[in-house]
Design brief:
alpha/beta; six-stranded mixed β-sheet
């Protein structure tokens, strides 16, 4: 495999979808001009909106969403593999879906993935999140070829469920996407540790573009986008929560070498108990 120059887009999406799409598009253009062949944006690139009624009002079905058209055209124009970390879209049953979309260099949709694990937590101090009240969870793990690598698609809270990453790695993924909107509380405590753990456990690269800062709806996210290598090393990382483009060059073959050194994906044993 050849080396891949990639870019992660760190954003602070707000409640205005059109503005968020414009902001993301400008950063994607800049990254492509710098030679990035694979570009990944954060979770809910098109809108960060905690108010349930306002979110429902802003949602579009996938075949009617302006974000789908704009990003497809952009990938085609720039000739890049573009991973939109996720879009909030309207599902057939009227609920929202948190959907990752992978566009190829011709603008066609290569794959989609709906976030499986819903962020339903109580962090204390009145900070409560119930993603399942707004979003319909997915149920299918996905891999896709992009920019010469096999990507395993995941989103944010998925990172706390290591069996998903093991399944993706065993299916051939050497690069895991983890676009996120981690809270400041959980980000400060767990963000880097979880990302490095998933990389080490599976011998994979981890690409984690993030939302960051104080959003219009009052949510505070951690930022600190990161690229982690298959030995658990931090290849590139943001040190703040401001919008930023993070660049790195990776060689997917390094994941195969890491798996040869520690072949844990081949070491599963049947167990019993407790």
């Amino acid at each position: 495999m050849s080396k891949i120059k990639l870019a992660l887009i760190q954003m602070r999406s707000g409640i205005d979808s059109a503005r968020n799409i414009d902001d993301a598009s400008a950063m994607i253009r800049e990254a492509a001009a710098e030679g990035a062949r694979l570009i990944v944006t954060p979770e809910t690139t098109n809108i960060v909106q905690r108010d349930r009624a306002a979110l429902q009002e802003a949602l579009n079905a996938p075949d009617e969403a302006p974000s789908m058209v704009r990003f497809a055209d952009l990938a085609d124009e720039l000739g890049i593999d573009l991973v939109i970390g996720s879009l909030a879209l309207r599902a057939d049953d009227g609920r929202a879906v948190n959907r990752q979309v992978v566009f190829g260099p011709d603008g066609a949709v290569k794959a989609t993935y709906d976030k499986i694990h819903m962020f339903d937590v109580q962090l204390g101090a009145g900070e409560v999140y119930r993603e399942s009240d707004q979003y319909a969870p997915g149920s299918e793990a996905k891999i896709v070829e992009a920019a010469g690598a096999t990507l395993g698609l995941t989103i944010c809270y998925d990172v706390r469920f290591p069996h998903l990453y093991r399944r993706l790695a065993k299916a051939g993924a050497t690069v895991m996407t983890v676009p996120s909107a981690f809270t400041k509380v959980t980000g400060r405590a767990h963000w880097e540790i979880l990302l490095r753990a998933r990389a080490i456990e599976t011998g994979s690269f981890v690409l984690a573009p993030a939302q960051g800062g104080l959003h219009e709806d009052g949510r505070k996210t951690w930022g600190r986008s990161m690229v982690i290598g298959p030995w658990g090393e931090v290849i590139a990382g943001s040190h703040h929560d401001e919008p930023e483009i993070l660049y790195a060059t990776i060689d997917p073959d390094d994941a195969l070498k890491a798996r040869e050194r520690i072949p844990s994906l081949q070491g599963d044993r049947e167990i019993t108990g407790p």
